[in-house]
Automatic annotation (TrEMBL):
<dbReference type="InterPro" id="IPR007055">
    <property type="entry name" value="BON_dom"/>
</dbReference>
<dbReference type="InterPro" id="IPR018392">
    <property type="entry name" value="LysM"/>
</dbReference>
<dbReference type="Pfam" id="PF01476">
    <property type="entry name" value="LysM"/>
</dbReference>
<keyword id="KW-0963">Cytoplasm</keyword>
<feature type="domain" description="BON">
    <location>
        <begin position="40"/>
        <end position="108"/>
    </location>
</feature>
<dbReference type="InterPro" id="IPR036779">
    <property type="entry name" value="LysM_dom_sf"/>
</dbReference>
<keyword id="KW-0175">Coiled coil</keyword>
<dbReference type="InterPro" id="IPR052196">
    <property type="entry name" value="Bact_Kbp"/>
</dbReference>
<feature type="coiled-coil region">
    <location>
        <begin position="22"/>
        <end position="73"/>
    </location>
</feature>
<dbReference type="Pfam" id="PF04972">
    <property type="entry name" value="BON"/>
</dbReference>
<protein>
    <recommendedName>
        <fullName>Potassium binding protein Kbp</fullName>
    </recommendedName>
</protein>
<feature type="domain" description="LysM">
    <location>
        <begin position="114"/>
        <end position="163"/>
    </location>
</feature>
<dbReference type="GO" id="GO:0005737">
    <property type="term" value="C:cytoplasm"/>
</dbReference>
Amino acid sequence: MGLFSFIKNAGEKVFGVGKAEAKEKTEAAANTKAAADELKTKEAGARKLEETIKDLKLEVEDLKIQIDDDMATVTGQAHDQSTKEKVVLVIGNTNGIASVDDQMSVEHAEPEAQFHTVIKGDTLGKIAKKYYGNAMKYPLIFDANKPMLTDPDKIYPGQVLRIPSLS
């Protein structure tokens, strides 16, 4: 027993299971076009994310985002740690993105925040109670997640939030 890896979609081409050559060429052309369309979609998605980050007024010099399957890689120089973390959250909280490879640098260093994944029944107050011991400190979490959050009552399960340190 163990882990076995396979080359996706290679079986039919390698073993030629009952396909006429003309049909194979037609399918290969369609697959090439589909791959090109998918690449354009990923590039368009990356450009849209870059625009969103700029629209949110998150300062990142030379911002570049690349999407490969469900992983996004982000590079550039963020103004500060808070901005860097917000950029990662904007990208990671996007439908279809499962992970973010953060390769950004920071111009003005500051302590890193913790991250919290919202679960059903969470409120900013409950989250503040968990991290700070005081539910009334929820505005700190709300402010730390602006401009992505516009209302402290509008969070959703699966969303990842910044939890800044109290110091």
